[in-house]
Hints:
Order of helices and strands: HHHHHHHHHEEHEEHHHHHHHHHHHH
Radius of gyration: 28 Å
Helix content: 40-55%
Distance between the termini: 41 Å
Largest sheet: 2 strands, antiparallel
Structural class: mainly alpha
Strand content: under 5%
Strand order of the largest sheet: 1-2
Number of strands: 4
Amino acid sequence: MLVEELETLRESILSLELDPLRAAIRGQEVPHDFPHELVYKCLVAGIRYHDGFAVELRGKSIHQSLERAFNARDIMSNRLPEMENPEDIPYCFWHPDVPSQETLRQLLKAHPTLFIRYKVGRACAAGGYVKLYKELDLLPDVAIAEEAHDSLPASKGIHDIVMGTRNLYRVMDDYNLCLFDEPQVGAFLNGDTCVRSALDKRQPVHHEIFPPPFDITEDWCLAADGKRPEERPIPSDILSLLYAPLPRQLPSVEKDILILMAAFTGNIDRYVRLRRPRPINGEMQCIVRGIYHNTFFAKWCYEQPDLAVLQKFVHARFIMNDDLSWLNNDRPFSKEDVPRIIWYPQTANRTTYLELLRLIPELKQLVAQALVVSDSPAAFARLEPEITPEIYAEIMSEARSDAFQEFLHQRLSKEEEEELAEWMELPHDIHDSPQGTHFG
Length: 440
């Protein structure tokens, strides 16, 4: 999820009262209105965890996810619901409770589809139903293997059957709640399954919520209270994987921290293996850091269509490498194609910055700031830049050539210098600088 999308989501949540949502999650009270998707998520959580809750809403076509939640609760309570349409059938009916083998057999008889067979196989892995699993005659699916591994020792029989095969397949897609169009042979365990222990880790409903990478229960793993994901300690088995080679069969771990660190350090192999289909919280920021510090990672990102939004940061890395070959004649370039920082973690050659200015004249102020960082006072003075707060701060924050300060003193009054010095004392976001303020 991009920053803009997350901000839009959170702005729309701010007006919601949280106490009614917590009451819905606890199965205590049905909300009076449904102004936001989050209300349905909370209600789904309440329905799945509290048998008999909100049954007055059943069949009223308020939201399809509610019908699936009612049906999942029925199955987990060993009742077989009437599900006439495919969209009525829940993806997950093995959390928070696992139905009995008899209920699963009845479900198979009522809905003898391939999709249901794999879902039943998944429920078998959660419940340790080896006999029923063998009857299903399924491909050795990594999702079932990971679910069985998560349910050890009860599911050791199923785990051994699946892992004992020559090839594993990717059949169930927990990200998109479906089966893959074509089973992918040669798969391996990679933490791409939403196992029951992951569903047990709930996030408290709050105004700064972040949608989880999986939503197989359609409730965002919401809880009425508890610790937010970022507040929980990192397990030792995950920490050890930060400095050790990844095993071919990755254990069932919360791999988000591994994804973030792979992106942060620009480790292409680890990142490509671990990344999820959609960015997780903080991932895009970590990718930007990796781009700035690793040229090869930057080049790889440059060639990924789904990372096109980050191309301007790749341009910065190329600039610092004295490479302007990306400025071709295929399209016009503007200051929007270059980020605010083009001199860290290393500066480019002075001639590179000047050539960049020749090719994109509207980058004058940014190039001037880069020339300050690269300690090139003569080239800086020839540009005659406006003395913005950013340029003033860059000159005054570190030991620079005296020529820079002389340039300032010739163009600023005492009052203007005092105002700029006061601005330096304030906290600033480099992505939100006061571009409309100029002196000189």
